[in-house]
Write a structure and sequence with these properties.
Helix content: 40-55%
Strand content: 5-15%
GO molecular function, one term: carnitine O-acetyltransferase activity
CATH architecture of the largest domain: 2-Layer Sandwich
Number of strands: 18
Largest sheet: 8 strands, mixed
Pfam family, one: Carn_acyltransf
Family: Belongs to the carnitine/choline acetyltransferase family.
Shape: globular
Number of domains: 2
CATH topology of the largest domain: Chloramphenicol Acetyltransferase
CATH class of the largest domain: Alpha Beta
Strand order of the largest sheet: 11-7-6-8-9-10-1-16
Keywords: Acyltransferase, Transferase
Protein name: Carnitine O-acetyltransferase
């Protein structure tokens, strides 16, 4: 077996901070009105502003300074000043002109650069996995009943979106852009040369879901001949029929093809569509509202593999949802290009995997929260056939010798990727977000400073850090990078690890680091961050055919985009864990769900990297959280 190489040297996308999870940091309201810097769309949501060039360049120097030596920083300062007085103003003017004629100057660029033009497999590298507590199924009827509740609640959510019944999401009192909700369901990613496309079928075309069991694909109609949504009982009857029909596994593991490198998948798809049967099958797959994957029980992993894990069950669930544990377990029981896949194991594991180009985490988590709530309703669902509902239909494949070779390659590469990806979850129970709140500190900023301390303990340097900040207060807003590594955080972690300051002084530095993160978060979610603006200036220079300015060829710029610490906060009303892979070979992926009295945390690395360690990072995060709590407690001013 060839060794897995997570990232080739040449990237096809100009930005690495696509952040698989992309859940949002805590939103803050701007102190200045967005209407002073952005025009409004017809929906009443303001357009994303183009930040002032001077401010962006000043902030850029601030965010790269903790990453650089004094000599490197001095060189970058000169390059930035050259851009400020040289090509910068003309490119800024061109970007402002683009913003005048588009509802979002960034949206299409970001979609193509961060997602559709990203050529590595969507598995691990882009599509997040989401899991929740394990279920208990003592009979197949309980499994079927659970699945029907999940399916019906997701379909109700779909209709709420189509019929505009969802209440608006708010950031304080400000209504957020809701366009991502229309992209989550009834959406499929289509592999294309260089840049993929997205297929969104019409409501008339999309009247069924896709069910995959034992690697076999089924069309399950969910609207009857009168256009009425199927009941839970009718859905249960359909699922029972599918389980009966698929008691033996499929010989050809076609689903594994969607785990391929995107360029290889283009070739594999072209081979498939040479056969009319496969064209028909792909049409049904690509017009499905979503996918339900019913997995066989996950084989028990060896005791030696899980004995060191702090949360073996949650770790297993995250691995199932992120990659499926390999071609011989669940990875071929998937269609990774489906917008949303609900994953239900016969042994009780429950989660989802979603294709990230459609939406960021908050809208998807809202859907998942709804299905979790529905699935926990106590009454079982009895199967009852609806005579007006068409029977489920197995979707067939004709697999050529060439396609068999493509499948063999996909299996080998997927198994190598799974073996290389080390994902572990743990539950930090000592305290949750209420602790920093009691000290009047932002919980998210507090946790981000803990990550800076944990990384510094392991590597004695500051990482280029990405945290996803929502820009949904703007039309078609997606994310902006929150740069968690600051001079304030560096000063704190250095002072802490040197152990030469009093607790009172350390507590002061900790508060400064937390405030620096909070301040940048406010700017980022109000469209005043650094990363997206610089990306726009770089892309507009290419569009204009001008020589690439030195600021973008400066090693500092590429260093700032080599995200060794990719992070996301995923708040949820349920016990939910989201996971994603690192975005660079020597990086970490860290996702966390802050709850009142606990943090649910997932960490990932690539085992092929000799300098990173998932277990080591987990230990350092736990230590850092406890030590920062201790610092705040001991660093309080003495009472007279």
């Amino acid at each position: 077996m060839t060794s897995h190489k997570p990232f080739p040297k040449q990237q096809s996308t100009p930005i690495l901070s696509h952040v698989p999870a992309s859940a949002m940091a805590l939103p803050f309201l701007s102190t200045r009105s967005a209407s002073t810097t952005a025009l409004f769309t017809s929906s009443g949501i303001p357009r994303l502003p183009v930040p002032p060039l001077e401010e962006t360049l000043d902030k850029y120097l601030q965010v790269v300074r903790p990453l650089l030596s004094p000599d490197q920083f001095s060189k970058t300062q000169k390059i930035v000043e050259g851009f400020r007085t040289g090509a910068g103003p003309d490119l800024q003017k061109a970007l402002q002109e683009r913003a005048k004629v588009r509802d979002s100057w960034l949206h299409q660029w970001w979609l193509e650069c961060a997602y559709l033009g990203f050529r590595l497999p969507v598995v691990v590298h882009s599509s997040p996995g989401v899991s929740t507590f394990k279920q208990e199924f003592s009979t197949q009827n309980q499994l079927v009943s659970f699945c029907s509740k999940v399916v019906r609640s997701a379909l109700e959510f779909h209709l709420d979106v189509l019929e505009d019944r969802l209440p608006p999401d708010l950031m304080g009192s400000v209504a957020l852009d809701m366009s991502q909700y229309s992209n989550i369901l009834a959406s499929t990613r289509i592999p294309e040369k260089d840049i993929d496309s997205q297929r969104r079928p019409s409501r008339e075309q999309s009247r069924h879901i896709l069910v995959i069991h034992q690697g076999r694909f089924f069309k399950l109609p969910v609207f009857n001949r009168e256009g009425v949504l199927a009941t839970r009982e009718a859905i249960s009857s359909q699922i029972e029929a599918i389980l009966r029909q698929s008691d033996t596994p499929c010989k050809d593991k076609v689903g594994i093809l969607t785990s391929l490198h995107r360029d290889k998948l283009v070739t594999a798809r072209q081979e498939l569509i040479n056969t009319p049967t496969n064209v028909t099958t792909l049409e049904q797959i690509e017009t499905a509202i979503f996918t339900l994957c019913i997995d066989n029980p996950t084989p028990l992993v060896s005791t030696s593999e899980i004995s060191h894990l702090s949360d073996p069950t949650e770790t297993t669930a995250s691995r199932i949802t992120l990659h499926g544990y390999g071609s011989s377990v669940h990875s071929a029981n998937r269609w990774f290009d489906s917008g949303v896949q609900f994953l239900v194991g016969k042994d009780g594991y429950f989660g989802m995997n979603y294709e990230h180009s459609n939406a960021d985490a908050p809208p998807v988590i809202k859907l998942f929260d709804k299905t979790i709530a529905a699935s926990q309703e106590p009454s079982d669902v009895c199967a009852c056939k609806d005579p007006l509902l068409a029977d489920p239909e197995e979707l067939l494949w004709e697999i050529s010798a060439v396609s068999q070779q493509h499948i063999a390659v996909a299996r080998e590469e997927m198994d190598s990727l799974v073996a290389d990806t080390d994902v572990q979850c743990f539950l930090f129970k000592e305290f949750g977000k209420d602790l920093p709140k009691s000290y009047r500190l932002s919980p998210d900023s507090f946790f981000q400073v803990a990550l800076q301390l944990a990384y510094y303990k392991m590597h004695t340097k500051t990482p280029a850090t990405y945290e996803s900040g929502s820009t949904r207060k703007f039309y078609q807003g997606r994310t902006e990078t929150i740069r968690s590594a600051t001079m304030a955080s560096l000063e704190f972690v250095q002072a802490f690890t040197q152990n030469v300051m009093s607790n009172e002084k350390l507590a002061h530095l900790l508060r400064q680091a937390v405030e620096a993160h909070r301040s940048y978060t406010i700017e980022a979610v109000n469209g005043q961050g650094v990363d997206r603006h610089l990306l726009g200036l770089k892309l507009i220079s290419k569009e204009k055919g001008v020589l690439l300015p030195e600021i973008f060829s400066d090693p500092t710029y590429s260093h700032s985009l080599h995200i060794t610490l990719s992070t996301s906060q995923v708040p949820s009303q349920h016990q939910l864990t989201l996971c994603f892979g690192p975005v660079v070979p020597d990086g970490y992926g860290v996702c966390y769900n802050p709850r009142e009295n606990e943090f649910r945390i997932c960490v990932s690395t690539f085992r092929s990297c000799p300098t990173t360690s998932t277990a080591g990072m987990i230990k350092c995060i736990e230590e850092s959280l406890m030590q920062m709590q201790h610092t705040l407690y001991l660093g309080q001013p003495a009472k007279l």
